[in-house]
Amino acid sequence: MLPQEYSSACARGGFKRAIEQIQAAVALKESAAAAAAAAAVAAAAAAAAAAEERWTADEVARFTKAMRKYPAGMPGRLQKLAEAIGTKTADDVSKRGRGAICV
Questions:
Q1: 78 occurs within a structural domain
Q2: CA distances, 51 to each of 14, 45, 46, 66, 77 (Å)
Q3: CA 43, 49, 50 angle in degrees (round to 5)?
Q4: Rounded to whole angstroms, how far apart are CA atoms 67 and 64?
Q5: CATH number of 84's domain
Q6: Are 9 and 48 in the same domain?
Q7: pTM, rounded to two decimals
Q8: Quick check: is 24 in a domain?
Q9: Whether the Cβ atoms of residue 70 and residue 81 lie closer than 8 Å to each other
Q10: What share of the chain has pLDDT > 70, as a percent?
Q11: Cβ(96)–Cβ(86) under 8 Å?
Q12: Is 103 part of any domain?
């Protein structure tokens, strides 16, 4: 609704209606801004998660070397692999290891 329409509604005595329309317009803008902010936060979180999942060539090399050192079935293997890599957690190693050939 345009400002002229608000003043016409007010002139006809529709103050309550004009106020309701203004409030509705403000709420719509606020919800759109909140949705945009939420989308930005979600995008940033997704980018951070993707960055955490990437492995450098050095990390892959340390992972491969550690897999040879700590054989499959060894107790505490994931933690030992993570410690050998130095920059990844046991959970990261587990995720990576699912797709790797165990040597």
A1: yes
A2: 56, 10, 9, 23, 25
A3: 90
A4: 5
A5: 1.10.10.60
A6: yes
A7: 0.49
A8: yes
A9: yes
A10: 72
A11: no
A12: no
Domain that holds residue 76: 57-98
Diameter over CA atoms, the chain: 85
Structure tokens given for 12? 């006809």
Residue 69 reports pLDDT greater than 70: yes
User: What distance in Å separates the CA atoms of residue 89 and residue 63, rounded to the nearest whole number?
Assistant: 12
CB neighbours of residue 9 within 10 Å: 19
DSSP 26-91: HHHHHHHHHHHHHHHHHHHHHHHHHHHH---HHHHHHHHHHHHHS-TT-TTHHHHHHHHHSSS-HH
Number of structural domains, the chain?
2
- Residues 65 and 32 placed together within one structural domain of the fold: no
Q: Give per-residue pLDDT as tens, 28-46.
A: 888 887 778 777 777 766 6
47 and 68 in a single domain? The answer is no
